[in-house]
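> example.struct
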């Protein structure tokens, strides 16, 4: 499997993991009647987010089988940066400067890990 395909699979994995969290947050935020088992079992968002995680896990198995763990696993931390950005963009959360700086540090780490990997 080519390096490009592996990195695209990893990107898909990261986007599915991040997207699943966004879907879950949205579903839970809009849940009426509180967080109950019945509400969870009848929420389409819970199932959609779970399905995204199942697909992400399938991709992860392919990635682990073809890429060094010391490269693949740390690169997943890019999901944290997507989480910060999504919290701000989708949910209107106020993000302090220190969190943005932390996200930038993660991006630098992702770059260093993937450089000549």
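> example.seq
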């Amino acid at each position: 499997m080519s390096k490009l395909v592996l990195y695209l699979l990893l990107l898909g994995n990261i986007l599915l993991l991040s997207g699943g969290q966004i879907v879950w947050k949205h579903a839970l935020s809009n849940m009426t009647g509180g967080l109950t088992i019945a509400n969870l079992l009848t929420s389409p968002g819970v199932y959609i987010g779970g399905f995204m995680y199942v697909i992400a896990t399938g991709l992860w198995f392919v990635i682990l089988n073809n890429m060094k763990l010391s490269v693949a696993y740390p690169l997943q931390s890019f999901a944290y940066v997507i989480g910060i950005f999504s919290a701000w963009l989708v949910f209107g959360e106020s993000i302090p400067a220190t969190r943005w700086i932390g996200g930038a540090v993660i991006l630098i780490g992702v770059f260093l890990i993937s450089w000549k990997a």
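> remarks
Residues 3-114 form one domain.
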